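Notebook entry, structure prediction.
Reason for the run: the old model in the group folder had no record of what sequence produced it. Starting over properly, with the input documented here first.
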Amino acid sequence: MYRTRFIVATLAAVLLVLFASVVPAQRPGAAPAPDVVYYNAKVVTVDDQFSYAQAVAIRGDTFTAVGANESVRRLAGPNTRQVDLRGMTVVPGLTDNHLHNAGGGPGVDLSHARTVADVLAAVGDRVRRAEPGEVVISNSDWHEAQLKEQRLPLRRDLDTVAPMTPVVIVRGGHEYVLNSAALAKWHVTKATLQPAGGRITRYPDGELNGELVDTAKSLVTLPAGTPRTLEERIQDQITEYNTLHAVGLTAVRHPGDSIDNYRMRKEMERRGLLSMRVTQLLRLGGAPAAIEQTLKSSGLSPTDGDALLRLGGMKMGVDGGFEGGFMRDPYEEPYGEGGTFRGLQTTPQRQFNETVRLYNRLGWRVFTHAVGDAAIDEVLAGYEAANADASIVGKRWGIEHAFIGRADHLPRMKNLGLFLSLQDHLYLAGPSLVNYWGRQRAFLTTPVKMYLDAGLPVSGGTDSSVVPYSPLWVIYHFVTRDTISGGPMGVDQQISREDALRMVTRNHWYLTFEENSKGIIAPGRAADMVVLPEDIMTVPAKRIEQMRVMMTMVGGKVVYRDADFRTISTE
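New structure, fully documented this time:
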């Protein structure tokens, strides 16, 4: 009997030792085991030292450990999932500082057109199916730089496929092109006065070519679509964010969106349906008194929001886009109209100053769209006027785009403590910008290296749907200065891969004062990360442009998995 008990006790002790060697004991007071460990990876932390690791541990929505495989895996408990990434690369969650939407829509899809003939074929097909009285409208997510001819289809082109049906080609956020039937519908003629801040352009023979730029678009009232219910709008937004997660986006900044859309996103968050980190800038029209009343009645404050959804300030604009950036010097001919056209000043200096001074008084930060060098002049003058009332230094006001920055802008920007929100427009529109502005200005667009060398903080994005929404294309363009159809331009403004990755990760969070909780892979930081199949820091640059995303995580939750990633085994 005694011998039997001894044997049983000995076996139990052995089993206990074996079990303890396989499953780490949870010591009293020790940190809880992670939910998941990812190991056998190249982890690019983007911390101050730009250090690398092999593994990360995550509990809840936070990184709890980052380091070597053995040390991180040792933290696993009996319920911890362990995922072997088999040498893939992990980077912090990718971001876009200026994204309107992902493109698409119910209009004519021109995103795949590669010639003017393709555009006309797509428009003609929709015209043949149009109901009597219908206006055929295109989606906006395309650009003439994608076309072999490197030009816009104009009125006479559109008339060949739509002689009687009104057609409005929407190009980006700044331009419409109308056919003859559409010009007649809205009574736009050669006698129509050109509105301030807008342009009605013509052929060399003086006839209207159908192009309406910036404020001239107000001459046209596009038919309202069928109103979307709140549930439909929420579903649309879920679908769009899922699309963006597939290219590695974990956070976006929506510039100039409505109060109504902000409330819609708050409802998504309340229901647990918001998978993207969102910062939204509001854009309000009208005189300062009307703006102040709108804000008062909205009940919103400059600090409204939380770690997932927040307001980031106010969006303003002072000039046009590719075809209307406000310049110190005239455009190239024929766009310069004999040295008289310098672009479009969409907001007069006095009005701009009054509005930014109001926002400063009310405690709102301001971010202003400024493409041309004269537009940047105007923004700096307005910000300096606001700063004279009450300092904006340290409040992180900013400029959106800043295509044509000049050396004399830099000290003024630094003195105001400005942040620059930059995008890869040249990647798409390079050849068109040469036509509009000439080689020197086009090749300067956007001078990221100059801004970095001056010690100015910069972040990166796309301006989607004006430019395709891939953050990897942002990195590729700023590293190489390559363009889709014009080859490399302005290679003196190339930046390192480290700086480009910072622009679309940690630098984004300085825009919202969240740089101490997001943007790098480190213990205690938000568990936002992206898994890539190759090492983005060492592969040939062209591979960055072509690389696909394997997995995207926001706050510890996987929001996208590539089909190939699903085959990876989990222990």
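Summary: The longest strand covers residues 249-257.
The old model has been moved to the deprecated folder.
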